[in-house]
Specification:
Blueprint lengths: L27 E2 L5 E12 L32 H20 L14 E5 L3 H14 L31 H12 L3 H8 L1 H12 L14 E3 L7 E3 L1 H17 L14 H7 L1 H10 L3 H8 L3 H8 L5 E6 L1 H11 L18 E8 L5 E9 L2 H6 L9 E5 L13 E2 H8 L2
Parallel strand pairs: 2-6, 3-6
Antiparallel strand pairs: 1-2, 2-7, 4-5, 7-8, 8-9, 8-10
Amino acid sequence: MLHVFRWAVPLCLGTALASAGCAQPDSVSAKGGAQLVADSVVILMRHGVRPPTKAVPLPKSTVRDAWPQWSVPPGWLTPHGAQAIGRLAEWDGSELRRDGLLPAEGCPAAGSVTVIADSDQRTIATADAWISGALPGCGIASEHRKQDESDPAFSPIKSGLVAFDPAKAQAAVIDAAGPGGIAAVEAAQRPLLERVDAILCGDSRTGCGVSARASGIDAPADGKPGLTGALDLASTAGQILVLEYGEGKPLAEVGWGRASVDDIAALSAFHALEFRLLARPRYNALANFAGLAPLVKQGLSGKAKVTLIVGHDTNVANLGGLLDAHWQVPGLAEDDPAPGGALVLTALHDKAGHRFVRIAYRSQTLDQIRAAGPLGQQDPYRTVIVPGACTATGDGTVCPLAVFEKLAGL
């Protein structure tokens, strides 16, 4: 099989999704003939498929029918979600071995693989599923705090790990909203909001739905801005549809049978919109990512060949905002972080000792998550991302390490 992307050294260049195969050597010539060699990789990954984090995920007045049942408590990784992560990990492991970041056979040397997870059940279980799929029988354990004990690395603002000015964070959200503010953003989404109402309420929409609730910006106790009203509720509703479909629920249970596959992709735009406003603006992203930045910097140093960090969609969106990274997983809206999706950061060097980072986003498609089958016949989605400050360097697909560190706040 011809591969269009490799962890370390893709020959198919550019930021668009590569859709056709191309041959690749083990290393790629940079401009001027220098060879780039992979030293290590950091994978910042969202957990796999889970139920909504609350038993009643939306106010009762916004829905008509009872919510579908799930096999695990709210917010936990499902068995299906673990299976899909395992399939993705098998593919990851194969690619990492092919690129020399894992041994071709057998288990890696002690200390050459680091797996770090947040303390939620879904992140711990996702890390375990990835280890089992990528490194079966190797006895590697993930590093994490006791389940449900807050980890400052993943909650730096809440823990006081980083200085944070709520007023600046609010200003960043307002700036991201653009002219007309949140009201204008909501108005632009009116047709999609009406579609949300149709799915939540069916034909009985009197006193039901989300579109009549004016959107706003909230300032909770921790100072992190949030959305309220229609845009907030639509983001939750859109994400629930993604999770129901990704879980493999019968279509009669996905949005109570009132949501099409096209609806799921279209309405996931509310989730991406929430991140565009709250998580991707630079001030907010730097503060939220401050706890993970040292782990990324350490992972790029090459002391460990592979570093996997299992967190949340917000973590991926934070780093995506800092890097101005964009992607679109088939089945989802642009920039919506998929369950199991990850930003992949590969550290490389050339013969002169210059160091670079190649940035990519990789994820199963939503249909691949739903099927949770082997990925040998169809590779996951992946795209190489080149921030504007990096386009004139290396082989055209990489960022100088110092530039990357500045962008990412390392």
